[in-house]
Amino acid sequence: MTKLITILIIVAALWGGWQLFVYWDKVKQEDEVAAKKKAQSEITSGEQLSGMPNSLESSYQAAKNKGGTAMKNWLKLNGRSVQDPRKAWIELEYCVAIAREDPAEARRTFAAVKSRLAPSSPVWPRVKQLEKTYE
Predict the structure, then answer these.
(1) Do 110 and 130 contact (CB within 8 A), yes or no?
(2) Tell me: the pLDDT tens digits for 68-94?
(3) What residue segments make up the domains of the chain, in order of their start?
(4) HSE-up of 133 (CA within 13 Å, CB side)?
(5) Do residues 86 and 49 lie in contact, with contact meaning Cβ atoms separated by under 8 Å?
């Protein structure tokens, strides 16, 4: 009788260990999927965003390379042709570009962008990243 009880305990322990392993594997896969989704949702550059016609891309890159004043002029000239979320990203880049030259303008532009965006926007993580600097 003790041999039967011993065998039942061993079988129960093996079955419990197997169930624990299956559960651990399931949780590990869910964590990996969540990490991949988070990595995909984070935007690292504005080129990935929609809202700007392709014809304006080269002129924007040229203005970006020239600095804050050129970006301001580009936004005045082409701002109406660009839509959010790309416009918000460009304005945040403008804030960073002029932060040393004109911090008041940078804060004003940042506040305008932040008030316009919703937390569900793909640009929102960038807003949160820059929030401590411009508020």
Answers:
(1) yes
(2) 888 889 888 888 888 888 888 889 989
(3) 1-41, 46-134
(4) 16
(5) yes
pTM of the predicted protein model: 0.66
Nearest to 93 by CA among 126, 124, 121, 53: 126
* DSSP single-letter state for residue 1: -
Q: Which of 68, 120, 56 is nearest to 92 (CA)?
A: 68
**CA 130 remoteness from chain centre:** 12
- DSSP for 27-87? HHHHHHHHHHHHHHHS--SGGGS-SS-GGGHHHHHHHHHH-HHHHHHHHHHHGGG--TTHH
What six digits make up the tokens of 44? 């690292």
DSSP states of 85-109: THHHHHHHHHHHHHTTT-HHHHHHH
Under DSSP, the state recorded for 118 is -
pLDDT 10s digits, 106-129:
899 999 999 988 888 888 888 888
What are the b/e assignments for 8-17, b being 16+ CB within 10 Å? eeeeeeeeee
